[in-house]
Structure formats: structure tokens, C-alpha cells
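Handoff note, outgoing to incoming analyst
You'll be picking up this chain. Sequence as last confirmed:
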Amino acid sequence: MREGSLEAPTRHALDWQNPWFWDEKALEAEMERIFHICHGCRRCFNLCDSFPRLFDLIDNGPTGEVDGVKKEDYAQVEEACTLCDMCFMTKCPYVPPHEWAVDFPHLMLRHRAVQARKNGIGLVDSQLADTDRAGRLGTFAAGLANWATDETNTLTRPAIERFAGIHHGARLPRYDGETFEIRAAREAAPVNQAAPAFGKRKAVLYATCFVNFNNTDIGAAARAVLAQNGVETEVVYPACCGMPKLELGDIEAVAAAARQVTAALLPWIDKGYDVIALTPSCALMLKFEWPLILPKDPAVERLSQATFDVSEYVVDIAKKDGLAPGLEPIEGGVSVHLACHARAQNMGAKAAEMLRLVPKTRVAIIERCSGHGGIWGARTENFEIAVKVGKPAAQAALKNDTRFVVSECPLAAEHLMQVMEMTAGEKKPEPFRALHPIELLARAYGLMEQES
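Most recent structure output, in case you need it:
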């Protein structure tokens, strides 16, 4: 046996349909085994709060070893995990194919799933994870929803904190007044026939719940950039990818979502379309998580192979076909936050690579966690931790002193902006809204209006 693994990390399928997966004693034994390895290594101490919690439990226990930690306290470690996958991708030397086969995020997911099956998922949590229902209601009454959820609203936010467990100070996503599907049907995206890629590609945009309901500008920018580069696009949104339900451990619901979305997208693949996911968490689900949850489903595997992250796709066009001319420098430079679920796709820093295609533009990279972790960072018990974890990234962004801050993860972007404002104090940072990288590329092409 050798120390650490020299090969690229690989993942085993989630064996959630095996009765062994749900056996609490077997789960506790596996957690104890993994925690022993983590205790002897500790490379991951600075990633998230799961590992400091684990090491404190060990160090403050009666034996100073894992056997001194009560089994019921294992939940404290799991509760801090945001399933960002960074320990698996960047820190742990014992991931498969190493014989110790450590997959900490999927171990935490298993614990969450077992507890969800044993105790059920609370009503509030299940409603928060139903992003399609919330999105339809929020879009229908966008003005009211955005007023009620604004973090400066001292009338409604304390009530939301009391009944939903969402911290009154956490910045929440806003809703657009129409869905991206409706906007795309209303707005034309003329394809540039002079572009090098014209006639070589066509793509279906999987809108994702966030772009469909919360920020249609991301989708509009993606359509505009792709049309400028000769790519015909269609917009499809059958349902959420299930990431919010994965975070709750509801694996069966995720499998159902995978089957539903796959059935809607597969006919487009049959017609020669590539699939583009507009946010990295959804791209990660389609490309990696779904095939691990449904490993014997050939349709899910086909979709996985046909799916691209939007930044990844633009870079692929640039490399294989060449981009259409017309990009103008981004004055003031841009700080690119590398979202965890973009990094977990193991494709490289595509957002930064894409923006470096813009001439005479300073691109600075922020390779630290924003701290948000989906709904995790907005919860009352986690918000202060989320701010603490995100502070180094915010400090890096402020130090870069760029006009723009972007992240492929819209939730990470808004949380990062909020922490930047907290960190800067009275001297507010120059960027007043974080953008998706594709929005900035659209601006560089002159395809989107500049904000004053």
C-alpha cells in the first residue's frame, strides 16, 4: 500500500438501492472508518466547518481518538457539509482508486439520506427544496415576493426567520416577472451566419430553476453570445435538476427528477443538439451525480455525455471553431470566483479561460469558497458561519480592486457580494451586483446593455 493516490479521482456509484445502504449500524461503521482516516490526515481542515467540527469532537473527547466520539454526535459533522465536493476533488489523497476509497461528501449524503428516511423531511425544508413551485409563485407575484424577502425588510424578514429558519440578514434570490422560457419565446436571437461555428453546432439550453425563475438575464446573455457565434439554440425547462432535494438526502426524488428531465432532453440529443446547463450545480447533476445515482440507465449516461457547462461550451467553440470577432476590452478588469460545483466538474477554470478570450482585459481568480452552500448558508444557524467562511474570498475580491466580480454560481455570487459589503464597511466595493461570466462576455460583445 502506498501513501496517497497519484491517479485522477474516480467515483463509485451510490448503492442506494441496496438494503445495506440504509443500515444504520453499517453506516456508523463506515463513518467511523472514514473519520479515522480524516483524523490521521487533516489536510482538509480549512475547507468547511465539517472538518473542524470533527477534529474538535475527537480532540475534546475522552480518548483523543475517534472511538471517544459519540455516534449521535456524528450528525454535527454531517450538518456542516454543503456537498461542495472540494474535499474529494482537491484535498483528499485517499479517494478512489486508492484502496481506502474515501468519498466524504457521499458519506455525508448517505447519512443525510438515512436520517431523512428514518425521521422524514420537515415541511419547511421540503417546501424550500421545491424550487419549481416557489419559482412559479415568485414569478407570478415578483414584486410582492421581492419586497417580502429583501434583507432590509424589517417587517417580513423576522417572520420568515421564525417560521422558515432563514436568517433575517441573508440575501435571498430575487424573482423575475416572467420565466426565461417565456422571455426566450418573446425575444429573437438572430444567428450570425458569418461566425466560424455557424452550421456546425446547435444547442438546447437547460434553463435551470434559477435562470428560469430568478435571473433570466443569464439565459438571455447565453442565447445572445451563442447566436453571435453562429449557434442555433432552443430553451427547455422540464423541471429542477433535484440538487436542493439531494442536499436533503431525498435520493429517490433526485432519481425521479433525473428520469423526467432526461426524457425531455433526449429527443433533442437525437436531433443533434448539445445540452448546455446554465448554472454549475445543474451541470454537475446532469454530468456526474445522476449517472452515479442511476448508473445502469443508458439514457442518463447519454445525457451526461452530451452536457456542457455554458462557459465550457464557449471555450470549446473558441478552441475548435474560433469565436466571432467583435469582443471589446472589459474596462476595470474582472475578478472571477471559481464556483465549487464548477470546479467539481473537473473541467478546469473555464469561466476564467472564457473571459481571458476578451482582449486587453485583466482577469483575476478567486479560488476560495464563497461560504453560501446553497440554502445551507441562509439558514439561521449557519449564516454567521457562511459569512466567516466567505470572508477570505471577499477580501481577495476587494484586494483585486476590479470593476466586476463574477461567479458561475449565482447564489455564491450574491453571497460573495454581501460579504464584500460587510467586509468593506463604509467604503462600498465598486461592483454593485455580481454577474455570471456569460453576462460579462455578452457585454464585451455589445449584446447586453451596460448598467449605470
